[in-house]
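Hi team,

Filling in the usual template for the complex we talked about on Friday. All components are listed, including any nucleic acid strands or ligand strings, so the model treats them as one assembly.

SUBMITTER: L.P.
PURPOSE: interface mapping
COMPONENTS: two
RESIDUES: 570
SEQUENCES:
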Amino acid sequence: MASCAHAKEQRGISSVGRARQWHCRGQGFESPILHQHRGRSGNLPGWPRAVPSARGSLPDESAGLYRARRRYPRPSPMTELAQPDRLAKATAMRQTGADPFPARGVASQPIAGLIAAAGTAAAPGPAIGTRVTIAGRMLMPRDFGKLIFAPLVDRTGRVQVGLQRDALPEWWPQRKWLDAGDLVGILGEVGFTQKGELTVWAKEVRLLAKSYAPPPEKWHGLADVEQRYRRRYVDLWATEGVMDVFVKRSKIVSGMRRFLEAQGYLEVETPTLHPIFGGATARPFVTHHNALGCDFYLRIAPELYLKRLIVGGLERVFEIARNFRNEGISTRHNPEFSMLELYEAQADYRRMMELAEQMIERLALEVNGTTKVTFRGREYDLKAPFARLRYSELFRHQNGCEFDDQPAVRARAAALCIEDGGNYWKLMNDVFEATCEKLLTGPVFCVDYPVQICPLAKSNPQDPRLAERFELFLDGMELGNAFSELNDPAEQQRRFEEQVASKDPEAPGVVDIDYVQALEYGMPPTGGLGIGIDRLVMVLTGQDTIRDVLLFPAMRPLGGEPASATAPTH
RNA sequence: GGGCGCGUAGCUCAGUCGGUAGAGCAGCUGGCUUUUAACCAGCUGGUCGUAGGUUCGAGUCCUACCGCGCUCACCA
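RESULT (copied from the run log):
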């Protein structure tokens, strides 16, 4: 495990290193020892002569060639998205020796850093500033004949570039090959326009990759929600704020790791393919293993494997697990979703409460700089500690009866038009959800659930009707679920057998004997906590729907033929 | 699965009472060195989601289907 985590860390470091190396890449750098060029940041080297065609004779010929191309259909087999005009421009470039998809990038620096540095710069006006190299996607060019303005976006931000004929005599004829959406590198000087806008005045321009598909309409952007999700690779740069949400999501997840590792937790990875599904109540996806000749379930929760590791003595473990549930899709549900689950030996659900509120407060501060969040139009404060409300007291307050007063609860359910499916505890919980969840705006811990609806939790020694369990709510949405884990193997086996006997399609068909046997070896008193990462990200980024915090939310496949129900056999 | 809504040019959308399809943006041509959705002039671009039906005539009315969104139910 330790070596695994170490390897992960090394990968992280090397990717940062890669980012720094960009500035020594470029056409013409033949030396394999690229790294030696690193660090001369004060005086970035100019680019080598971009293309042979820059020597002149280009304008008229290339324009004629381009016009000729227009008469033909698509020059190559591409999808309907590729614009003939753009394909023709690439062809024209190639015929003059220029490469629309050069092999090397340029040595760029993040735009955000440039903006931050310019924040303290001199007053507006033509200014000779620092030389910078930036790279990104060029959008919305505005052509004035001898001057072109266009925004350039990279991962960190957006800045305007100014392209002037007199400053770019060699490149200028190639401007006709440039389209909105192209990826370009700019070597230029930081300055301002007459209107005072920060601008990088280009000294050199290089096309880094041609964009054959046109970017979305410049004012409305990607207005079609479906297109935003299906083509997230466009949405990320075409829709304001989208990039930021996913950068924050990444920071939230790494913040979780840091927080837990600082407390001595070990990150582990447990199977996604389960022979028996468990750890939650949900319909699973089924898949098939050819060599073993048996079916597997995609996990609905990592819980039972993580608790096996507590039996194994790892004591504090967590997993950032992708779970799969074969159920409906909504603003809060995706068929695959991410969950943080953690287990701590010698802890109980009270310790889990403290851990949860401290972690969430910390994450809010890390990504937003404040514990205040606005979610679905309401403001919440994620400052710890969160409120605690007892399930039983909430129930009594809202319904005027005890949760285990069966006749009174049945009558109440009937009054609320809640259908009685025969299972009293399910009915009671339906009454609770109908009458109490709307009060759980939060952030709030709802604590001490009736033991009958907590198959994996320990009962409370003071009141055996209750389980040591809490759920964390915000805006009526469940964010987390935790309990003092049941570690009595006989009791666990009994509850499993009850589940199997229920014939519920959401219950496994067989008892997970191996898990019971793990408990027979002895599991210490343990607290366990699960937090829905997608939902937490929704709250911390102010997004109303889960789809807006998933890079690629589940969508019905396009095209007439529905995917085959059977797995391919190879 | 139920209810409501939408589908017209590459994009965003108009399209009246059923009478041969419109705008802006994008693209192309020309002009323009300080724009912020730049602007000006010209040009190109559509099997109106699909299939039937009613009609002399359907983008428009009817039916079915496909796709998407919202919403309800189940779930975290």
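MY TAKE: Residues 242-262 of chain A form the longest helix (21 residues). Residues 133 and 187 of chain A are 4 Å apart (CA to CA).

Thanks, L.
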